[in-house]
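## retry 2 of 3
previous attempt timed out at serialization; input unchanged, resubmitting
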Amino acid sequence: MGDGARYIGVAERRARLALRHRLAPQARAGTPEEVADALVALHGSDPATVYLAVGARLTDAASTVAGTDRALYEDRTLVRMHGMRHTVFAFPTGLTAVVHASTGLTVAARERAALLKDMAKAGAPDAAWLKEVEEAALSALGRLGQATAAELAQEEPRLRERFVYAAGKPYEGVHTVATRLLRVLGVEGKVVRGRPLGSWTSNQFRWALAPEHHELPPSDAQAELLRHWLTACGPATEADLKWWTGWRVTDVRRALAAIGARAVSLDEGTGYVVEGDVDPVAGPREPWAALLPGLDPTAMGWQGRDWYLAPELRPALFDYSGNVGPTVWWDGRVVGGWAQRPDGEIVWRILDRAGAGRDAETAVAAQAERLAAWLGSTRVTPRFRTPVEKELAG
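## retry succeeded, writing output
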């Protein structure tokens, strides 16, 4: 970093987060597409996260479920697919080609090789056989439009064949060809997750053919993805970028150079923003509160989180694998956690009282009422449970 790089402090970083992540009331969005565009990607490992993340950022939270269903399954303006770090996200459809070329290709090659290796160890059929099954499955999916793995196996019975995975290891298991092959096809960008079985909180889903897209050069796609993310989340450090994308540091540096990113000074050291984003950003008009779901893309947006989440709160708010649970936010920082009880009540607890007084409690209570109103009779249990969420849920 050269001398004279502008310093961006914690207060301004929180201001950028409030406005660009559509969390301050004045910045809320009108549609799920606007939310996804602002955040680049909505975590989809837990299906409920997509809806809860959207609802927290919409002007009209009552339209959350209908609007998100429309975007995902009718208009297909959002697509749920594998992306960074081999994680399932919901992306704006216009970014699917960028995500596939920038993050998917390398992971896809590794996943297919692992499947063939595991099948060979188990004495299962070879690559040519697997290719036949794959082509038959994709053809069936084209005819059916959307289908579960079981429905596809009715069209192509070889998908039901089973093989032992990791024989003799503590984690030994039995996989069907369908389970592993559909996962590989998802990472390869050939299929995507479709409408779930049951409600919007269901983890059981159908598969659909992926939307067609042009193949992009990986380096161009990496630059484009990083430009989108840094616009939403800048400033960020190299470590943040490497963690979020799952790329090598050489790929991160090449992409930063390709988009002409500007270096700035952060408390952690050198950070980066997109070209033209160095000027100061004013904060929201008033302090704001939000209840964000487990795995929310804001809470999981950076590797270095001390500027919005005190380290002493992590044991209560994260599980053992590093997945964040439901969080309470006050004016740009995490101050506590929340949960839904079996009777539907939204309960919350402020864990960090510094600067979160009576005004914060009043605002958080209002957000809890807002969330309970649009959830109605739906009950949501996070896929990855954390100590404070389990305690509050009772």
